[in-house]
Design a protein that fits this description.
Layout: H1 3-19, E1 24-30, H2 40-50, E2 55-59, H3 61-70, H4 76-92, H5 99-114, H6 118-130, E3 136-141, H7 151-161, E4 166-173, E5 185-189, H8 195-206, H9 212-221, H10 226-235, H11 238-241, H12 255-266, H13 270-281, H14 287-294, H15 318-325, H16 329-342, H17 348-357, H18 362-377, H19 381-392, H20 402-419, H21 422-432, H22 440-457, H23 464-474, H24 479-496, H25 502-515, H26 523-539, H27 543-552, H28 567-583, H29 590-599, H30 604-621, H31 625-634, H32 647-659, H33 662-675, H34 684-698, H35 703-714, H36 726-735, H37 739-742, H38 746-754, H39 762-771, H40 774-791, H41 794-810, H42 825-842, H43 846-861, H44 876-886, H45 891-898, H46 902-916, H47 924-930
Helix pairs in contact: 1-2, 3-4, 4-5, 4-6, 5-6, 6-7, 8-9, 8-10, 12-15, 13-14, 13-16, 14-16, 16-17, 17-18, 18-19, 18-20, 19-20, 20-21, 20-22, 21-22, 22-24, 23-24, 24-25, 24-26, 24-28, 25-26, 26-27, 26-28, 28-29, 28-30, 29-30, 30-31, 30-32, 31-32, 32-33, 32-34, 33-34, 34-35, 34-36, 36-39, ...
Length: 936
């Protein structure tokens, strides 16, 4: 089991025990870089992701070492325990106003310091832990000296904290022996890192942004070894680590791996060494050919030194580099020459080895160019990349012919695009455009690739006219190819929210196809024509017509032999799926599933488009935590940055904001800020600002929301330009309805869209409630609450309840009899907010849980004192549920204890909140006590 799964398994155990008020101790032997990086913060983030209220404290072991100097009578275990308690004390008592807690914990801390033996000290530490008011996770990054801690001491500490809400994680260096243990004492050893750990390490070591997909490739190439991950990281530039530029050389092995591999190989006879190196030098391993030149079979062991079973699919690993490094350059060149002679004249394999031996001629290079193109078009990116890298190495004193250089540049651009390295792709493909010798189909493929790449690096609308003119010229002989390019160009502008130009380009595409007789002889051209008309209807504000056209005829079928370089053809499936996903909030249409199945596994670039479409669909239907976790995990597999020109990454970042803690939100905002285009023509930087403003507003800071919305409204920025973050803008108004009065023109700007079609849009329905007059408000509220309950999606329900509560608070005199929630609008709003808080809490929707708690606190602070209320009437079942909830038990635990469904518990609590006139669970203990309803 790898680091990721083992780490999260332990985190789940720790979080579940903390949730029940129980402690644990976990000893983890794992790779680390002292003073730079360890697994501690990641493990802590895993725990806080599962148990949101955990207070995380990292203990500085250097303090314990200093304590040994001032108190030499102490043992190592005593010093660590005293230092840990001291740091926890300082962290928990940082609030100067909480004098009672400080006084209580200070007495207990002194008892720990003054204890005369370790057992007594551990017992005092347990009393200190029991007095902590909130779940606490302590991480200790220890050095090798912790190996000397007696197991008995660890058991004593574990026993002392087992019944307290404190968990301790001690991280020791890799290789330290950790004995097996059972809860509440855990232990595990981790030898190799997973992609998320590799990324955290690379960021800490390099200080630059590292794209998750790049970290995933590095981790796979390094096979999880920390030394090789570090070596690969420092060998790449900042743009390469960010995923923008294509690396130009094979992975570099660390000195540690080079030594290990050299020791293994040097133990072999010379003939087997040569055979093993030769096996790694081949394009596709062929043991028979190796035997013919080395005179022996390649060694069958150790297996970790053998090349992958499918080099066409697998990434080159540092093992290959390390094996080849064991031979001198002259020996490698001689092996290549011998291998070349072993293959037939005119074969690609012969040409490959002649190029690497430095004896290739023009025919060899042309043959390899053709092979690289073929492998690239069928998706063997690793094999194509090896060939392209070899062809890119220029022998001293030689320069490639212009035609060869142009073809190589085009292949580099197409390879970079398929891997998501869009800066390299845009540069190489721009250079390739218009070069002589290409057919119209080849040139349109280059233009389509350039359009796709530049969309991820920032639109350059000024050059669109030149591209359109050239595509119209090419359309005379390749109408379907040119029309697909025009549709792709419009789709990029549609995603970016451009409103000028798309209609003209789509009409030009339709004219090209109609002039060529599309639909009479070429079904593929007919599909392009339907898609162009549907997209035109969408950008011109006729969504019903677009939906009808999409339903009547566009086909997402792409032949299996379609080249990967035919970007516009693959984009046809993406665009079709995107438009259908954007118009169907309550279902997952078959055409979307068909398109996603077609794109799956084609290449990292197309995989990222599929993930982005899934994100759009999830956002439309309402996010769920499993969907968010799945799509967030995909970012280590695919370059999410390029999915739908950044829209996919933005939406997944929004979902992380909904379900993640502050560390998760900060990580994703940083990713967007560094990974998305820096062009002023692109909307992505505005998207980043919107997400940040919404996150700050959830915590009570509305400054950025006003500063952002004011200029956006004044400039009349169209909704289309904010499509990726429109729900966050609506959320800001839900959280802070006063923005409607504070920001001049905001109401008119928002309402400009609600009168148009697509009223089934969830955001439009929320806006309709927020902006409704008093005569319409209650019926709209009633319909919205009912429909979102039917939807079954927790995020949609929470947002609907908060929108309805905000509208009711604006008009406290509304007649709410129809709602049957409470006797007046303000009480009904409180019940809805309480239900929203409950749903957010049960479903782990962290963003709305923060909002609901703050709203409840604000409502309580501004409440007007009134007459003492009569004792509420609760049924026996409601009272039992309320008492258990007041004790801190979760709905699942209450359901198990009372033998009822979790949904029944939720409904009973809603009735309790309504009867008690409170907003949610946090007010329950005080309300029960105030009415004399606590369990006697």
């Amino acid at each position: 089991m790898h680091a990721l799964s083992r780490r999260r398994l332990i985190a789940r155990e720790i979080a579940e025990r903390l949730n029940r008020g129980l402690g644990s101790l976990c000893l983890v032997a794992a790779p680390s870089v002292p003073g730079v990086w360890s697994l501690g913060p990641t493990l802590a983030a895993d725990v806080t992701g599962l148990q949101q209220d955990v207070h995380v404290i990292e203990v500085d072991v250097a303090v314990a070492a200093a304590l040994l100097l001032t108190r030499p009578e102490l043992g190592l275990a005593d010093a660590l325990l005293i230092a840990s308690v001291n740091q926890v004390f300082e962290d928990l008592c940082s609030d100067p106003e909480d004098t009672h807690l400080r006084g209580q914990l200070e007495r207990l801390r002194n008892a720990v310091q003054d204890a005369s033996s370790f057992p007594a000290r551990a017992e005092a530490a347990g009393a200190f832990a029991a007095a902590c008011r909130r779940p606490t996770l302590i991480t200790i990054v220890a050095d090798r000296v912790c190996e000397d801690l007696p197991a008995g001491y660890l058991r004593q500490v574990t026993a002392a904290i087992a019944a307290t809400p404190v968990a301790i994680v001690v991280l020791v260096p890799q290789g330290v022996s950790v004995a097996p243990a059972v809860p509440p004492c855990f232990s595990m050893s981790i030898s190799r890192l997973e992609p998320d750990d590799a990324r955290a390490l690379l960021v800490a070591e390099t200080g630059v942004y590292v794209d998750p997909a790049v970290a995933g490739r590095i981790c796979l190439s390094a096979e999880g070894r920390i030394a090789d991950i570090r070596a690969l990281g420092v060998s790449l530039t900042g743009e390469q680590l960010a995923g923008r530029e294509l690396p130009q050389r094979m992975p570099a092995a660390s000195a540690q791996t080079l030594r290990t591999v050299a020791e293994q190989i040097n133990a072999l006879p010379q003939e087997q060494r040569d055979a093993l190196v030769a096996l790694h030098l081949q394009l596709v391993p062929d043991a028979d050919v190796v035997r013919s030149i080395a005179g022996t079979e390649p060694p069958q062991g150790p297996t970790d030194l053998l090349p992958g079973t499918d080099p066409a699919r697998e990434l080159p690993t540092v093992t290959t580099s390390a094996v080849v490094e064991t031979a001198t350059r002259e020996a490698v060149r001689d092996l290549h020459a011998a291998l070349a002679d072993a293959y037939a004249a005119g074969s690609p394999e012969r040409s490959w080895h002649r190029v690497n031996a430095g004896t290739a001629d023009a025919d060899d290079r042309d043959r390899l160019l053709a092979l690289a193109d073929s492998e690239l078009q069928r998706g063997s990116l690793s094999l194509a990349g090896r060939i392209i890298q070899a062809l890119g190495r220029k022998p001293a004193g030689h320069s490639a012919p212009p035609a060869h250089a142009a073809a190589l540049g085009r292949l580099q651009g197409q390879l970079a695009l398929q891997l998501g390295c869009t800066l390299t792709a845009a540069s190489r493909l721009y250079e390739a455009m218009g070069r002589p010798g290409m057919s119209p189909e080849e040139e349109t493929d280059v233009i389509a690739g350039y359009i796709a790449a530049r969309g991820c690096e920032g639109l350059s609308v000024g050059e669109d006219g030149r591209l359109v003119a050239r595509l119209q010229e090419l359309g005379a002989t390749a109408p379907a190819h040119a029309a697909r390019c025009l549709v792709l160009l419009v789709a990029q502008e549609y995603i970016a929210g451009e409103v000028e130009g798309p209609g003209h380009y789509l009409r030009a595409a339709a004219q090209l196809l109609q002039a060529a007789g599309a639909g009479t002889a070429d079904p593929a051209a007919a599909d392009v024509l339907v898609l162009a008309r549907a997209l035109l209807a969408r950008v011109e504000g006729r969504p019903d017509e677009a939906a009808q056209l999409l339903g009547e005829g566009t086909s997402a079928v792409i032949p299996a032999d379609t080249p990967r370089g035919d970007v516009a053809k693959w984009a046809q499936a993406v665009i079709c799926a995107l438009m259908v996903a954007a118009q169907a909030p309550d279902e997952r249409p078959a055409v979307v599933d068909s398109a996603l199945a077609l794109l799956d596994g084609v290449s990292p670039f197309y995989d990222s488009q599929a993930v982005a479409v899934r994100a759009v669909l999830a956002a439309r239907r309402g996010w769920t935590r499993p969907e968010q976790e799945e799509l967030e995990g995909d970012c280590y597999r695919v370059p999410l940055r390029v999915g739908l020109a950044g829209m996919g990454m933005t939406m997944v970042a929004h979902s992380a904001m909904l379900f993640g803690g502050s560390a998760t939100v900060s990580t994703w905002r940083s990713a967007m800020a560094h990974a998305l285009p820096r062009s002023s023509a692109s909307p992505q930087q505005l998207w980043v600002s919107v997400l940040e403003a919404a996150s700050r507003l959830a915590d009570g800071d509305g400054t950025l929301a006003g500063l952002l919305l004011g200029p956006v409204v004044a400039a009349r920025v169209p909704r289309e330009r904010l499509r990726a973050v429109w729900s966050s803008i609506i959320d800001m108004v839900l959280i802070e309805p006063a923005l409607l009065q504070r920001v001049p023109g905001l109401t008119d700007w928002l309402s400009a869209r609600t009168g148009q079609p697509l009223q089934a849009d969830p955001d439009d329905r929320l806006l309709a409630v927020l902006l409704a007059d008093d005569a319409q408000a209650v019926p709209l509220i009633s319909g919205l609450v009912l429909d979102t309950v039917w939807s079954g999606n927790a995020v949609q329900q929470v947002r609907a309840h908060m929108a309805c509560a905000a509208r009711l608070r604006r008009s406290p005199g509304l007649d709410v009899t129809e709602l049957a929630v409470a006797t007046d609008a303000s009480s009904s709003a409180a019940v809805l907010e309480g239900r929203a808080a409950e749903l957010a809490d049960v479903n782990g929707i962290v963003f709305w849980r923060r909002v609901a708690r703050r709203t409840a606190e604000d409502a309580h602070a501004w409440a007007v004192p009134g007459p003492t209320p009569l004792a509420p009437v609760l049924t026996d079942t409601e009272l039992r549920v309320a008492r258990l909830a007041a004790q801190g038990k979760r709905n699942k635990e209450i359901a198990a204890e009372l033998y009822m469904a979790v949904r029944t518990v939720e409904l009973r609590l809603t009735g309790v909140y309504r009867a008690l006139g409170i907003a949610g669970r946090r007010e329950l203990p005080k309300a029960l006590a105030a009415h004399g309803l606590v369990d006697g």
